[in-house]
Amino acid sequence: MKKIFKYMFVGLMACTTLSSCLESSLDTAPTDSMSGTGLLATANAALVPLNGLYRSMYSAWSPTGNTHQCFGISAYNLAGDVMGDDHIMSASGSGWFWYDCLYNVKSRYTSTTWRSYDLWNCYYTWISNANYILSAEETMAGTEAEVHNIIGQAYAIRAYSYFMLAQSFARTYKGHESEPCCPIYTEPTVAGTEGKPRSSVQEVYNQIVGDINKAVELLNGTSRKHISHIDYTVALGFQARIAQVMEDWNVAKKAAEDAISASKCTIAKVSEFKGLNSVNASNVMWGAEIISDQSGMYASLFSHMDADADKYGATARKQISKKLYEKMGATDDRLTWWNPEDANNKNGGYQQEKFKFSDIQTWMGDYIWMRIEEMYLIAAEAECRLGNDAGAREYLMDLMSKRDASYSCAQKSGTAMGKLTSDYTGSLLEEIIIQRRIELWGEFGRIYDIRRLKQGFKRTADMGWPTDALLGNRNTDDPESYMWVLTIPQSEFDGNANMDPTKDQNPVGDTK
């Protein structure tokens, strides 16, 4: 019988080895003399594998040949963005992210150097490491607050990982609850552990909700040691994101409001977080502070975004759709995030200036994974969905008053949405989503919103899309499409007796 052999100690030891890279800012120590048991004996010792786990969230540790597009959370957000309608890739460049943009990765599930393997392996590695930490919940020494802090973070990491697996390897939650999703592991895996079958979407989301609720409970009242750590407010942010996908609007509203209230973050003016490259900005809830010897160099977000660095960002320029750009008012400060006058735009969209190296010479720039503006947008959407247009407009204006002095949404109401993302209805909900598209461009993974909103989309030359990326022969207008449901890597079937490739593999094409 085939046995599962991945993700277990391999993941833990990889993370503990990486942990020293967080250096003194996280007060970590070398780990080569520490046993696995010792690492989890106390809350203080457990910071070592935990820090290593966080380090892997912004490191290029995927198989050789794929590292330049697989550097953790920021890479996966970028991949999700170029799969949509608003984030244009002007050309293939060196090929990184181009195949995501063209939806040309699913047939490559037998390879370990493509997106299916990378995502599956990454999230299950994080789950495995979280499970090891959680296995010490009853035995870990330390004050109650110290233990709660470590264990709460592990629950949040597991929730986040399953959430992203569910969004990558199954159709969106609502309406697809009974469909197959991914296997659930909640105990440490060792060599010889038998693999599990795919659980349903509902079962996976039940696990996600249970984990994030536990994280919120345990992290409340604790304090984090570094902004790369998940704290109470970040856990609330995850809770809000999850509820948003599940269309549980009461939970989404409360979680977003609690995050706003508990966080010391404030909505920042565009000029206050220029370049989106510093976790010290007042609006940053969670991110990775990159120090000098941690730069991913070519395998980094800014090498793909910042055209002035003359790296990948110059040969495969990232641009905003002209049609979305036109949705901004003449006095919107966010206009500076893109440059319509850039000579390199040619017939494409408008060159992005939102993401820039903080220091091109040393490849420096922090990664921002959650900021407070998102919470205002979630709260606004939740209020609108619950029929409170006045409350929704208030949250939206909290944000937009810092973006455009001339902005008004006073006449907007209702929740009508078009079949396609380009079919505009003029509703308040649509306005909230438009501002979300602009505000979070390049940060969140646009395709995830398209999926949960059950809209189709079309790419056109008028938007600025190159001919090769128009996807004219694909059914992007079908919200039920399997286009954006990744295939499961062959390595999972090879190592898991309870998964049958003839029955459990996702469709390779756009339809089932």
UniProtKB/TrEMBL annotation:
<feature type="signal peptide">
    <location>
        <begin position="1"/>
        <end position="21"/>
    </location>
</feature>
<comment type="similarity">
    <text>Belongs to the SusD family.</text>
</comment>
<keyword id="KW-0472">Membrane</keyword>
<dbReference type="GO" id="GO:0009279">
    <property type="term" value="C:cell outer membrane"/>
</dbReference>
<feature type="region of interest" description="Disordered">
    <location>
        <begin position="493"/>
        <end position="512"/>
    </location>
</feature>
<keyword id="KW-0998">Cell outer membrane</keyword>
<protein>
    <submittedName>
        <fullName>RagB/SusD family nutrient uptake outer membrane protein</fullName>
    </submittedName>
</protein>
<dbReference type="Pfam" id="PF07980">
    <property type="entry name" value="SusD_RagB"/>
</dbReference>
<dbReference type="Pfam" id="PF14322">
    <property type="entry name" value="SusD-like_3"/>
</dbReference>
<dbReference type="InterPro" id="IPR011990">
    <property type="entry name" value="TPR-like_helical_dom_sf"/>
</dbReference>
<keyword id="KW-0732">Signal</keyword>
<dbReference type="InterPro" id="IPR012944">
    <property type="entry name" value="SusD_RagB_dom"/>
</dbReference>
<feature type="domain" description="SusD-like N-terminal">
    <location>
        <begin position="105"/>
        <end position="242"/>
    </location>
</feature>
<dbReference type="InterPro" id="IPR033985">
    <property type="entry name" value="SusD-like_N"/>
</dbReference>
<feature type="domain" description="RagB/SusD">
    <location>
        <begin position="342"/>
        <end position="507"/>
    </location>
</feature>
